[in-house]
């Protein structure tokens, strides 16, 4: 069974954001598969972890640039959620590179954090985000 199924609850209805969230879900699912595989090679896990950190960082920047440009009122709280998560991921990557394994507890945290963040924090910005993207499209 898929670790994080891509369900309707995760779709916010904003294509650019949904596409990016979908990639994050796919990467966490790939990490779960690599870790569950008894023969899971550390190289493969390292690649996925690095890819996940990179992509997460890029996705957060996409949201944050729009927050800043169009004045999202809850930006501070949202940014601190993003930076807390990025910090945790960097810490796991460093520990992994130092020889520690990524365990299922980490996977559960990634899943719970991402699902909660999309369904609560990101969902809360929807009216703002739709308006911001409409302004961007008009300016293009
Ligand atoms: Fe997001
Ligand atoms: Fe976010």
UniProtKB/TrEMBL annotation:
The protein's matches in SUPFAM superfamilies, at most eight in alphabetical order, are given as: Hemerythrin-like
Q: Which UniProt keywords apply?
A: Iron, Metal-binding, Oxygen transport, Transport
What PROSITE patterns does the record tag this protein with? HEMERYTHRINS
Organism's domain of life? Bacteria
Q: What is the protein name for this chain?
A: Bacteriohemerythrin
- Extract the GO molecular function terms from the UniProt entry: metal ion binding; oxygen carrier activity
> Gene3D superfamilies in the record, alphabetically?
Hemerythrin-like (1.20.120.50)
In this chain the Hemerythrin-like domain maps to 13-128
| Pfam families in alphabetical order | Hemerythrin
Record's family?
Belongs to the hemerythrin family.
Q: What InterPro entries does this protein map onto?
A: Haemerythrin_Fe_BS, Hemerythrin, Hemerythrin-like, Hemerythrin-like_sf, Hemerythrin_metal-bd
């Amino acid at each position: 069974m898929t670790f994080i199924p891509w369900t309707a609850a995760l779709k916010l209805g904003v294509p650019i954001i949904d596409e990016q969230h979908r990639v994050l879900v796919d990467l966490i699912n790939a990490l779960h598969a690599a870790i569950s595989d008894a023969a899971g090679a550390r190289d493969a896990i390292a690649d996925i972890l690095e890819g996940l950190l990179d992509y997460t960082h890029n996705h957060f920047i996409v949201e944050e640039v729009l927050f800043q440009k169009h004045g999202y009122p809850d930006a501070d709280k949202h940014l601190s959620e993003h930076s807390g998560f990025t910090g945790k991921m960097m810490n796991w990557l460093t520990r992994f590179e130092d020889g520690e394994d990524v365990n299922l507890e980490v996977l559960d945290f990634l899943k719970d954090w991402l699902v909660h963040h999309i369904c609560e924090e990101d969902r809360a910005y929807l009216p703002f985000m739709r308006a911001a993207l409409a302004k961007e499209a008009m300016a293009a």
